[in-house]
Protein backbone atom coordinates (compact mmCIF):
# COMPACT_ATOMS: atom_id res chain seq x y z
CA UNK A 1 0.00 0.00 0.00
CA UNK A 2 1.27 3.52 -0.84
CA UNK A 3 3.58 4.94 0.52
CA UNK A 4 4.89 1.68 2.02
CA UNK A 5 5.30 0.54 -1.56
CA UNK A 6 6.75 2.96 -4.05
CA UNK A 7 7.73 1.07 -7.18
CA UNK A 8 9.95 3.92 -8.34
CA UNK A 9 12.47 3.16 -5.56
CA UNK A 10 13.95 0.42 -7.70
CA UNK A 11 14.20 2.65 -10.77
CA UNK A 12 16.27 5.49 -9.33
CA UNK A 13 19.60 4.85 -11.09
CA UNK A 14 20.92 2.65 -13.89
CA UNK A 15 22.83 0.59 -11.32
CA UNK A 16 19.65 0.03 -9.33
CA UNK A 17 17.69 -0.89 -12.44
CA UNK A 18 20.41 -3.31 -13.46
CA UNK A 19 20.23 -5.04 -10.08
CA UNK A 20 16.56 -5.86 -10.46
CA UNK A 21 16.50 -6.42 -14.23
CA UNK A 22 14.59 -9.60 -15.05
CA UNK A 23 15.88 -10.22 -18.56
CA UNK A 24 19.46 -10.21 -19.79
CA UNK A 25 20.97 -10.54 -23.25
CA UNK A 26 24.27 -12.17 -24.12
CA UNK A 27 26.02 -13.17 -27.35
CA UNK A 28 25.04 -16.77 -26.53
CA UNK A 29 21.42 -15.90 -27.27
CA UNK A 30 21.94 -15.36 -30.98
CA UNK A 31 21.84 -17.29 -34.21
CA UNK A 32 23.18 -15.20 -37.11
CA UNK A 33 21.47 -15.78 -40.47
CA UNK A 34 23.89 -15.51 -43.41
CA UNK A 35 23.20 -15.41 -47.16
CA UNK A 36 25.73 -17.08 -49.43
CA UNK A 37 26.29 -16.67 -53.18
CA UNK A 38 28.74 -18.06 -55.74
CA UNK A 39 31.76 -16.01 -56.74
CA UNK A 40 34.82 -14.41 -55.21
CA UNK A 41 35.04 -11.18 -53.26
CA UNK A 42 31.27 -10.74 -53.44
CA UNK A 43 29.61 -8.58 -50.78
CA UNK A 44 26.35 -7.64 -52.33
CA UNK A 45 23.99 -5.43 -50.33
CA UNK A 46 20.37 -6.60 -50.30
CA UNK A 47 18.21 -3.70 -51.49
CA UNK A 48 15.40 -4.22 -49.00
CA UNK A 49 17.82 -5.08 -46.16
CA UNK A 50 20.24 -2.14 -45.96
CA UNK A 51 23.47 -3.10 -44.19
CA UNK A 52 22.94 -6.82 -44.87
CA UNK A 53 24.78 -8.70 -47.59
CA UNK A 54 25.00 -11.75 -49.79
CA UNK A 55 28.52 -13.12 -49.34
CA UNK A 56 30.73 -15.35 -51.46
CA UNK A 57 32.58 -18.14 -49.66
CA UNK A 58 35.74 -16.09 -49.03
CA UNK A 59 33.77 -13.26 -47.45
CA UNK A 60 31.64 -15.78 -45.57
CA UNK A 61 34.82 -17.02 -43.94
CA UNK A 62 35.85 -13.46 -43.01
CA UNK A 63 32.41 -12.81 -41.58
CA UNK A 64 32.30 -15.90 -39.36
CA UNK A 65 35.75 -15.08 -37.99
CA UNK A 66 34.45 -11.64 -37.03
CA UNK A 67 31.30 -13.13 -35.49
CA UNK A 68 33.37 -15.55 -33.44
CA UNK A 69 35.48 -12.67 -32.09
CA UNK A 70 32.29 -10.94 -31.00
CA UNK A 71 31.22 -14.06 -29.11
CA UNK A 72 28.58 -15.07 -31.66
CA UNK A 73 28.80 -18.83 -31.87
CA UNK A 74 26.06 -19.91 -34.21
CA UNK A 75 25.15 -19.19 -37.83
CA UNK A 76 22.16 -20.18 -39.94
CA UNK A 77 23.08 -20.58 -43.60
CA UNK A 78 20.93 -19.77 -46.63
CA UNK A 79 22.10 -19.97 -50.23
CA UNK A 80 21.07 -18.11 -53.35
CA UNK A 81 21.38 -20.37 -56.37
CA UNK A 82 21.29 -19.61 -60.06
CA UNK A 83 17.89 -19.90 -61.76
CA UNK A 84 19.40 -22.49 -64.12
CA UNK A 85 19.88 -24.86 -61.17
CA UNK A 86 16.27 -24.62 -60.00
CA UNK A 87 13.70 -27.32 -60.70
CA UNK A 88 10.63 -28.87 -59.10
CA UNK A 89 12.37 -31.71 -57.31
CA UNK A 90 15.19 -30.18 -55.28
CA UNK A 91 17.97 -31.72 -57.39
CA UNK A 92 20.52 -29.03 -56.58
CA UNK A 93 19.62 -29.11 -52.88
CA UNK A 94 21.06 -32.64 -52.75
CA UNK A 95 24.23 -31.89 -54.70
CA UNK A 96 27.09 -32.98 -52.41
CA UNK A 97 29.17 -30.21 -53.97
CA UNK A 98 26.36 -27.64 -53.97
CA UNK A 99 26.75 -24.14 -52.59
CA UNK A 100 25.20 -25.05 -49.23
CA UNK A 101 27.42 -28.07 -48.79
CA UNK A 102 30.52 -26.00 -49.67
CA UNK A 103 29.37 -23.20 -47.35
CA UNK A 104 29.15 -25.58 -44.41
CA UNK A 105 32.72 -26.72 -45.05
CA UNK A 106 33.94 -23.15 -45.54
CA UNK A 107 32.54 -22.07 -42.17
CA UNK A 108 33.97 -25.11 -40.39
CA UNK A 109 37.37 -24.55 -42.03
CA UNK A 110 37.40 -20.90 -40.94
CA UNK A 111 36.01 -21.38 -37.42
CA UNK A 112 35.85 -25.05 -36.40
CA UNK A 113 33.93 -24.28 -33.20
CA UNK A 114 31.10 -22.39 -34.89
CA UNK A 115 27.71 -24.09 -34.55
CA UNK A 116 26.58 -24.42 -38.15
CA UNK A 117 22.85 -24.53 -38.75
CA UNK A 118 21.44 -24.95 -42.24
CA UNK A 119 18.16 -24.05 -43.85
CA UNK A 120 16.27 -27.10 -45.04
CA UNK A 121 13.51 -26.20 -47.51
CA UNK A 122 13.22 -26.26 -51.27
CA UNK A 123 12.31 -22.64 -52.04
CA UNK A 124 15.81 -21.41 -52.94
CA UNK A 125 16.08 -24.40 -55.30
CA UNK A 126 12.52 -24.39 -56.61
CA UNK A 127 11.62 -23.10 -60.06
CA UNK A 128 8.23 -22.26 -58.53
CA UNK A 129 9.53 -20.58 -55.38
CA UNK A 130 7.83 -23.04 -53.06
CA UNK A 131 9.22 -24.86 -50.06
CA UNK A 132 8.11 -28.17 -51.52
CA UNK A 133 7.36 -30.06 -54.70
CA UNK A 134 4.44 -28.63 -56.68
CA UNK A 135 1.93 -31.01 -58.28
CA UNK A 136 -1.71 -30.71 -59.26
CA UNK A 137 -1.88 -27.13 -58.02
CA UNK A 138 -0.69 -28.18 -54.56
CA UNK A 139 2.48 -28.51 -52.53
CA UNK A 140 2.84 -32.29 -52.26
CA UNK A 141 3.49 -33.10 -48.60
CA UNK A 142 4.97 -36.58 -48.31
CA UNK A 143 7.17 -36.48 -51.41
CA UNK A 144 8.54 -33.17 -50.16
CA UNK A 145 9.31 -34.57 -46.71
CA UNK A 146 11.28 -37.41 -48.28
CA UNK A 147 13.44 -34.94 -50.25
CA UNK A 148 13.88 -32.71 -47.20
CA UNK A 149 15.14 -35.68 -45.21
CA UNK A 150 17.71 -36.36 -47.96
CA UNK A 151 18.64 -32.69 -47.90
CA UNK A 152 19.15 -32.78 -44.14
CA UNK A 153 21.33 -35.88 -44.55
CA UNK A 154 23.38 -34.14 -47.21
CA UNK A 155 23.98 -31.19 -44.86
CA UNK A 156 24.92 -33.55 -42.05
CA UNK A 157 27.38 -35.31 -44.35
CA UNK A 158 28.92 -31.94 -45.22
CA UNK A 159 29.49 -31.19 -41.53
CA UNK A 160 26.42 -29.26 -40.32
CA UNK A 161 25.68 -29.40 -36.61
CA UNK A 162 21.99 -28.55 -36.77
CA UNK A 163 19.52 -28.78 -39.63
CA UNK A 164 16.70 -26.27 -39.61
CA UNK A 165 13.63 -27.25 -41.62
CA UNK A 166 11.72 -24.06 -42.45
CA UNK A 167 9.10 -25.61 -44.73
CA UNK A 168 6.11 -26.58 -42.52
CA UNK A 169 5.34 -29.92 -44.22
CA UNK A 170 3.59 -32.40 -41.92
CA UNK A 171 5.76 -35.22 -40.62
CA UNK A 172 9.05 -33.94 -41.98
CA UNK A 173 10.75 -33.93 -38.61
CA UNK A 174 10.00 -37.64 -38.20
CA UNK A 175 11.29 -38.41 -41.73
CA UNK A 176 14.44 -36.43 -41.11
CA UNK A 177 15.14 -37.82 -37.66
CA UNK A 178 14.62 -41.38 -38.85
CA UNK A 179 16.94 -41.00 -41.83
CA UNK A 180 19.64 -39.24 -39.77
CA UNK A 181 19.53 -42.00 -37.15
CA UNK A 182 19.57 -44.74 -39.80
CA UNK A 183 22.64 -43.15 -41.36
CA UNK A 184 24.51 -42.92 -38.06
CA UNK A 185 24.11 -39.16 -37.56
CA UNK A 186 23.06 -39.50 -33.93
CA UNK A 187 24.33 -36.08 -32.85
CA UNK A 188 22.84 -33.85 -35.52
CA UNK A 189 20.34 -31.45 -34.00
CA UNK A 190 17.05 -30.51 -35.58
CA UNK A 191 15.79 -26.98 -35.05
CA UNK A 192 12.26 -27.11 -36.32
CA UNK A 193 10.45 -24.04 -37.54
CA UNK A 194 7.49 -25.49 -35.69
CA UNK A 195 5.18 -22.47 -35.57
CA UNK A 196 5.91 -20.61 -38.77
CA UNK A 197 3.20 -18.27 -39.94
CA UNK A 198 2.25 -17.31 -43.50
CA UNK A 199 3.59 -13.80 -43.06
CA UNK A 200 4.05 -10.75 -45.25
CA UNK A 201 7.19 -9.97 -43.27
CA UNK A 202 9.29 -12.41 -45.34
CA UNK A 203 9.38 -10.10 -48.38
CA UNK A 204 12.96 -8.83 -48.07
CA UNK A 205 14.26 -12.38 -47.48
CA UNK A 206 12.64 -13.51 -50.73
CA UNK A 207 14.40 -10.57 -52.44
CA UNK A 208 17.68 -11.68 -50.91
CA UNK A 209 17.41 -15.19 -52.30
CA UNK A 210 15.19 -14.44 -55.30
CA UNK A 211 12.88 -17.13 -53.94
CA UNK A 212 9.35 -15.67 -54.06
CA UNK A 213 6.55 -17.91 -55.36
CA UNK A 214 6.12 -17.42 -59.11
CA UNK A 215 2.93 -16.16 -60.69
CA UNK A 216 1.94 -19.11 -62.87
CA UNK A 217 -1.29 -21.00 -63.51
CA UNK A 218 -1.57 -24.12 -61.31
CA UNK A 219 1.02 -22.83 -58.88
CA UNK A 220 -0.25 -21.51 -55.53
CA UNK A 221 0.55 -17.79 -55.24
CA UNK A 222 1.25 -17.93 -51.52
CA UNK A 223 2.32 -20.36 -48.83
CA UNK A 224 -0.95 -20.45 -46.90
CA UNK A 225 -1.59 -24.19 -47.40
CA UNK A 226 1.51 -25.03 -45.39
CA UNK A 227 2.52 -22.05 -43.27
CA UNK A 228 0.15 -21.19 -40.43
CA UNK A 229 -2.80 -18.82 -40.44
CA UNK A 230 -1.85 -15.76 -38.39
CA UNK A 231 -5.29 -15.77 -36.78
CA UNK A 232 -4.41 -18.95 -34.88
CA UNK A 233 -2.80 -19.33 -31.49
CA UNK A 234 -3.63 -22.74 -30.01
CA UNK A 235 -2.59 -24.42 -33.24
CA UNK A 236 0.96 -23.17 -32.68
CA UNK A 237 1.23 -25.21 -29.50
CA UNK A 238 -0.17 -28.27 -31.27
CA UNK A 239 2.31 -27.92 -34.16
CA UNK A 240 5.19 -27.50 -31.75
CA UNK A 241 4.34 -30.44 -29.50
CA UNK A 242 4.02 -32.66 -32.57
CA UNK A 243 7.46 -31.61 -33.83
CA UNK A 244 9.00 -32.38 -30.44
CA UNK A 245 7.36 -35.82 -30.51
CA UNK A 246 8.81 -36.36 -33.97
CA UNK A 247 12.33 -35.57 -32.78
CA UNK A 248 12.96 -31.82 -32.82
CA UNK A 249 15.64 -30.63 -30.39
CA UNK A 250 14.87 -26.91 -30.69
CA UNK A 251 11.55 -25.41 -31.76
CA UNK A 252 10.90 -22.03 -33.30
CA UNK A 253 8.32 -19.29 -33.61
CA UNK A 254 8.51 -17.08 -36.68
CA UNK A 255 8.17 -14.10 -37.19
CA UNK A 256 9.08 -12.43 -33.89
CA UNK A 257 7.51 -9.21 -32.77
CA UNK A 258 3.92 -9.78 -33.91
CA UNK A 259 3.95 -13.28 -32.41
CA UNK A 260 5.18 -12.80 -28.85
CA UNK A 261 1.92 -14.19 -27.43
CA UNK A 262 2.74 -17.42 -29.28
CA UNK A 263 6.31 -17.38 -27.96
CA UNK A 264 5.05 -17.23 -24.38
CA UNK A 265 2.44 -19.94 -24.93
CA UNK A 266 5.07 -22.25 -26.37
CA UNK A 267 7.67 -21.41 -23.73
CA UNK A 268 5.11 -22.41 -21.08
CA UNK A 269 4.14 -25.60 -22.90
CA UNK A 270 7.50 -27.18 -23.75
CA UNK A 271 10.80 -28.06 -22.11
CA UNK A 272 13.10 -27.78 -25.11
CA UNK A 273 14.85 -24.54 -26.16
CA UNK A 274 12.56 -22.10 -27.94
CA UNK A 275 14.00 -20.03 -30.79
CA UNK A 276 12.43 -16.94 -32.26
CA UNK A 277 13.21 -15.64 -35.75
CA UNK A 278 13.11 -11.87 -35.97
CA UNK A 279 12.60 -11.86 -39.73
CA UNK A 280 13.71 -9.75 -42.66
CA UNK A 281 10.63 -7.53 -42.73
CA UNK A 282 11.12 -6.66 -39.09
CA UNK A 283 14.71 -5.69 -39.91
CA UNK A 284 13.61 -3.65 -42.92
CA UNK A 285 10.99 -1.70 -40.95
CA UNK A 286 13.50 -0.54 -38.36
CA UNK A 287 16.10 0.34 -41.02
CA UNK A 288 13.58 2.33 -43.05
CA UNK A 289 12.22 4.29 -40.12
CA UNK A 290 15.73 4.98 -38.80
CA UNK A 291 16.90 6.14 -42.24
CA UNK A 292 14.15 8.75 -42.21
CA UNK A 293 15.08 9.82 -38.73
CA UNK A 294 11.72 8.67 -37.43
CA UNK A 295 13.04 6.13 -34.92
CA UNK A 296 16.25 5.78 -32.93
CA UNK A 297 17.76 2.68 -34.56
CA UNK A 298 19.87 1.36 -31.69
CA UNK A 299 17.26 2.04 -29.02
CA UNK A 300 14.52 0.29 -30.98
CA UNK A 301 16.75 -2.67 -31.82
CA UNK A 302 17.58 -3.20 -28.16
CA UNK A 303 13.98 -2.78 -27.04
CA UNK A 304 12.71 -5.33 -29.56
CA UNK A 305 15.46 -7.80 -28.70
CA UNK A 306 14.64 -7.57 -25.01
CA UNK A 307 10.93 -7.94 -25.79
CA UNK A 308 11.58 -11.16 -27.72
CA UNK A 309 13.77 -12.54 -24.94
CA UNK A 310 11.30 -11.48 -22.24
CA UNK A 311 8.46 -13.20 -24.09
CA UNK A 312 10.32 -16.50 -23.69
CA UNK A 313 12.91 -16.84 -26.42
CA UNK A 314 15.95 -18.89 -25.45
CA UNK A 315 17.54 -18.18 -28.82
CA UNK A 316 17.00 -15.39 -31.31
CA UNK A 317 17.79 -15.62 -35.01
CA UNK A 318 18.44 -11.99 -35.81
CA UNK A 319 19.96 -9.81 -38.51
CA UNK A 320 20.76 -7.38 -35.70
CA UNK A 321 22.93 -9.85 -33.74
CA UNK A 322 26.19 -7.98 -34.35
CA UNK A 323 24.58 -4.62 -33.54
CA UNK A 324 23.12 -5.92 -30.30
CA UNK A 325 26.36 -7.52 -29.15
CA UNK A 326 28.22 -4.26 -29.77
CA UNK A 327 25.49 -2.28 -27.99
CA UNK A 328 25.53 -4.43 -24.86
CA UNK A 329 29.33 -4.78 -24.58
C1 LIG B 1 11.73 -20.26 -46.60
C2 LIG B 1 12.18 -19.30 -45.57
C3 LIG B 1 11.69 -18.01 -45.45
C4 LIG B 1 12.39 -17.42 -44.42
C5 LIG B 1 13.29 -18.35 -43.91
N1 LIG B 1 13.14 -19.53 -44.64
C6 LIG B 1 10.70 -17.29 -46.26
C7 LIG B 1 9.45 -17.95 -46.62
O1 LIG B 1 8.95 -18.83 -45.91
O2 LIG B 1 8.92 -17.58 -47.66
C8 LIG B 1 12.16 -16.02 -43.98
C9 LIG B 1 13.21 -15.35 -43.18
C10 LIG B 1 13.10 -13.88 -43.14
O3 LIG B 1 12.15 -13.26 -43.66
O4 LIG B 1 14.01 -13.28 -42.56
N2 LIG B 1 11.87 -21.59 -46.34
From TrEMBL:
Species this protein is from: Leeuwenhoekiella parthenopeia
Substrates-to-products reaction catalysed: 2 5-aminolevulinate = porphobilinogen + 2 H2O + H(+)
Pfam families assigned: ALAD
Protein name: Delta-aminolevulinic acid dehydratase
Key words, A-Z: Heme biosynthesis, Lyase, Porphyrin biosynthesis
Keyword Lyase set for record: yes
GO molecular function, one term: porphobilinogen synthase activity
Family: Belongs to the ALAD family.
EC number annotated for this UniProt entry: 4.2.1.24
Subunit structure: Homooctamer.
Pathway linked to the protein: Porphyrin-containing compound metabolism; protoporphyrin-IX biosynthesis; coproporphyrinogen-III from 5-aminolevulinate: step 1/4
